[in-house]
Amino acid sequence: MNLALGIDPGLRGGLAALNPTGQVVGTWPMPLAGGEVHAAGLADLLRSLRCLDTHQDIGRVCLEKVGAMPKQGVASTFRFGTGWGMVRGVCAALAIPVVLVPPPVWKKRVLLGFPHDKAGAVQFCANRWPTAELVLPGCRIPHDGIADALCLAEYGRLLDHN
User: Fold this and answer.
1) Residue 137: how many other CB atoms lie within 10 Å
2) Most buried among 75, 76, 83, 130, using CB within 10 Å?
3) CB 110 within 8 A of CB 72
């Protein structure tokens, strides 16, 4: 059974895994250490999803293809790009196929009838997967990085159904 994994990169990003029927296998905030993406933590998480005993593996990672944002400072752009590259490097080291998906592409395919913004992604996920944990312990508002990751995972899952 191949899982579709979505990754919203960045310090407020998240990861989400869906099985082939679209059920949530798990959601996680981006592993961080020292204010950066924690490569070893990310690698451990990805390895934990690969279970040869149950023939479960990651079929693909759909990673948001992003660039510098207007009015974003040089230091924050560099930090974001470093984290994005870290995610790509970990996936490459673990031989996990990565599909880079620009936000307008996955939003057009997944967020049908919902606003194409963070709030729309949260709303879509709350409707599609009402039991998915979008609010992290100690928080009161949904984690939009996890919502985007769920949407990216759904986009990846839908690639198999064309």
Assistant:
1) 5
2) 83
3) no
158 three-state secondary structure: helix
Distance CA 122, CA 31 (A): 20
pLDDT of residue 72: 67
25-37 pLDDT, tens digit per residue, is 999 999 999 988 9
CB 58 within 8 A of CB 96: yes
Tokens of 3: 């899982």
Radius of gyration of the chain (CA): 15
Token code pair at residue 45 = 């998480």
72-111 pLDDT per residue, tens: 677 666 666 677 788 999 999 999 999 999 999 999 999 9
Closest CA to 106 of 97, 98, 115, 116: 116
CATH superfamily of 2-159: Ribonuclease H-like superfamily/Ribonuclease H (3.30.420.10)
Other beta carbons within 10 Å of 109:
14
What single-letter amino acid sits at 70? P
